[in-house]
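Dig into what follows:

_____
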Amino acid sequence: LPDLNSIIFLIGLQELGILQDKFEKEEKQDLMHLGVCALLSRRGYYTWEGRDQDGWPHYRATKQIEAVGVEEQEKLLKEEIVGYFSGLVNQI
């Protein structure tokens, strides 16, 4: 069973939309951040700004995350993961 970080990484890959064989350590961190931004944009915490010259999506933080503590933040992310994948399934 994949852990939360693995799922967020996969969402980052999905949002990037560019496949390549290897990612550098910093790019992997960027993919995780991208996954979090994509998930939390669903609740208005981030706003889509567009893609840069390399095709990477960019978001802007728009409001403070209300979840306090690791457990509450993980719960928020898990709820958004379910919604994210439900949305993908509905597109099929």
About this structure: Helices lie at 4-16, 25-41, 70-91. The mean pLDDT is 91. The first helix runs from residue 4 to 16.
